[in-house]
Amino acid sequence: MNELLQTVAGPLPVSAVRGPVLAHEHLALDLTRGADRAATLTPGHRAAITEELAALRREFGLSLVIELTCRGMGRDVAGMARIAADASVAVVAATGWYYEPFHPEELSRTSAERLARTLVGEIERGCGGSGIRPGVIGEVGSHGDLPSEPEARTLRAAALAATATGLSVATHAQFGRGGHAQLELLTAAGLPPHRVSIGHQDLLDDPAVHRELAASGAYIAFDTVGKESYQSDRVRLRLLLALLESGFADRVLLSCDVSRHGYLVSEGGMGYGHLFRSFLPRLRAAGVDEETIDGLTRRNPLRFLTGRDGPAPAADGRPADGPAQPAGPPR
């Protein structure tokens, strides 16, 4: 268990994170493939991103962003560091490999063990000579119900690197599918389930799968909040309330996954603040209390990042009195 978070500005005590955390975002990336030229967040968007984060810090106390742009996704850790400094919001950078269409050619000839050594090198020495060290492994991807062979190798590499370094692993499950197979691969390589977040589960309208993954101890990422073209927030709210009602409030992570410049507020999009300005008010209106919301937006992501399988510190920095309490709307 880690008591320090590794951010782009260096180690940060867990107790310093007093406000909410965005558990899956992008501040700099390039996912352009084929005809899709808009899936970018470039240096030209940096000022708009910085202003959004600074505004969320002022209005909602935003304290930390988990930035899951990894190798092959146009990662720019120096750019992240500038945004973090200018917005006064801590940022955790990532390492790993995305799903197969974004794999570099050399992955086809590299063993999981050798890939893991590459990740450990970044975690211990920094990304690309920058000296900026990742604090999480992700978003390690697959698509379909079963990972392809290259995806299985990169998932295994992520698990081996995580067990060697103490970091946790966040996944990309395309449209929410394949979470069980991802978790099986990661845990078979020795990674405890409470150090795994299964991504994009709010795109999968299957409460039984959510319950099964949460019951295993993994975190369930409802991390595309506001992306109405993929799933309506009405359905997301229903799925989340079902998970809370089942007693798994301590297994959920929330975020918006801003992954193209068209999502920025400056371009008319939902922005990083959609979670706070739109979705959480609907959650409160459904009867979810502030203690539970603090768990969803702060204590849970801190436990995930640190590998702590018990309570995260309270907002005043003191240890919480007991485990996170499953809670939801009144019955």
Explain this structure.
This protein is of the alpha/beta class and 331 residues long. Helices cover 36% and strands 15% of the residues. The protein contains nine helices and 13 strands. The chain has helices at residues 46-60, 77-87, 112-125, 149-165, 179-188, 207-216, 233-245, 274-285, 290-306; strands spanning 4-7, 10-13, 21-25, 29-30, 40-41, 64-67, 90-92, 94-95, 136-142, 169-173, 196-198, 219-222, 252-254. Strands 8-9-10-11-12-13 form a six-stranded parallel beta sheet. Strands 3-6-7 form a three-stranded parallel beta sheet. β9 (136-142), α4 (149-165) and β10 (169-173) form a beta-alpha-beta unit. α1 (46-60) crosses α2 (77-87) and α4 (149-165) crosses α5. The radius of gyration is 18 Å and the shape is globular. The two termini are 36 Å apart. The model is unreliable at 316-331 (pLDDT under 50).
Q: What value does the average pLDDT take?
A: 92
Low-confidence residue ranges: 316-331
Specify the number of helices.
Answer: 9
Helix and strand composition category: alpha/beta
DSSP helix fraction: 25-40%
The side-by-side strand order for the widest beta sheet comes to 8-9-10-11-12-13
Tell me the radius of gyration. Answer: 18 Å
For the largest beta-sheet, the strand count, sense and barrel status come to:
6 strands, parallel
End-to-end distance: 36 Å
How large a portion of the residues is in β-strands, by DSSP E? Answer: 5-15%
Question: Order of helices and strands, N to C?
Answer: EEEEEHEHEEHEHEHEHEHEHH
Backbone shape: globular
- Give the total of beta strands: 13
